[in-house]
Amino acid sequence: MDLLSGQERVSEIFDIGAEDLRSVLRRASGWSDVGVESIADTQPFACGNGRNGDYLAPVFMCESPAGERRALNLFVKRAHDPLTPEPMHYEHLEAHGAPIPRFYGAHVDPKGKQIFFLEFVEAHEHVPYEELVTRDRSSLEDYVRLAARFNAIEPSEEYQSNLEYSRVYPRTDLCDFRRDLAGSLHTISLLWGLAGRGCLGGRAQAFCSRHSGDLDRLQELERATAQQVARMPTALVHDDLGTDNMATRPMTNEYVVTDLEHVKLAPRFSDLVGCAEAIHEAAASVMSMQELADLYVSAYTQAGGATIPSDELSHEIGILVTAKRIDTVRQFLSDACCIARWNWLAPQHIERRGRQFLPETDQDEVIQAVEALLETAM
Question: Closest by alpha carbon to 40, among 74, 1, 85, 89?
């Protein structure tokens, strides 16, 4: 008995067309045709924050024209954004040997949302960078090697034309940097202006008052960092490469990268920034920055990437870490302005209105980021 025969749509799999599902199963099985005896494990489950899509991991009991029976376990995502480029990323990068789950096809549901099918892989737990760099050297090595293998992929010209440049670390020039960061080059002066008027809270106000003499140095660091980042070579980056976006193939334990919706062109070592920042701040990291650089360069070259001097990598990552800290401050200020309904690009019109808009914990994170910038600016 073939469950798909006579059906127009399969309600258990996001109401996908029956023949669309059959074409996916042909690709997944490698058979010329496929019949479906049963479908199990069709309960939707949570994945990540759940804002980007709905998820299934069904098991299809299939039969080939020759009578061979096989269970196919797939991962299915219905994206909330009908224009998501994620299926395009999977299809192109699989063809270029990227370390990602196998892609079996994408189709559109009756409401216009994209449904795409991937090889089922075992997801990893989320480990914050500050734990990753202090807990287990082998896990950190796996992470660095996987990042290098992904970044070594050389996008085709056609594929590059469909990629965005990173919003945070744009490639082209200082003007793009200024525009794309929505005023980031004025982050430090805006911080001092808002904090000085008590708009952000007492801790931020006291900190900026104590360091009023450091304002010029920080603004110069901000300008120099923008110029240096804008001149950096770019490469394919994942842009959200945490341990929760690593997975393993059940049969081989090979590591792969998942969740490709943010893939873009950006400064070539951007995926290492979170890890590098954690190493800088850790009291006792299991790997030094030099060891990280050497390991990454070795894995990058083995994966077919161009040879990169490790000291060049270390230098660029240091600049990107500084840019990330500036952007951390920018994000907190942007959130505060959104809450207060301020136009943060017109700070002269911002008023306190009798309240502060950054919780004390957020003020502490802003202060920590600026203290790190002060060390860099020394």
Answer: 74
Q: What is the pLDDT of residues 48-82, one digit of tens each?
A: 556 789 999 999 999 999 999 999 999 999 999 88
Q: What is the pLDDT of residues 283-294, one digit of tens each?
A: 889 999 999 999
Residue 208 lies in a domain: yes
- Enumerate the β-bridge partners of residue 123: 247
Q: Domains in the chain: how many in total?
A: 2
In-domain check, residue 302: yes
pLDDT tens sequence across 225-267:
988 998 899 899 999 999 999 999 998 999 999 999 889 988 9
Report the Cα 162 to chain-centroid distance in Å.
17
Q: Are residues 61 and 133 in the same domain?
A: no
Kindly write down the DSSP assignment for every residue of 352-364, as one continuous string.
-TT---S-HHHHH
For residue 254 the two structure tokens come to 């090979």
Find the domain containing 86 and state its range.
9-120
CATH of the domain at 42: 3.30.200
d(CA 109, CA 112): 5
Residues 243, 201, single domain; the answer is: yes
Three-class SS of residue 7? coil
Q: How many CB atoms within 10 Å of residue 159?
A: 19
Please report, as a single letter, which amino acid is at residue 15: D
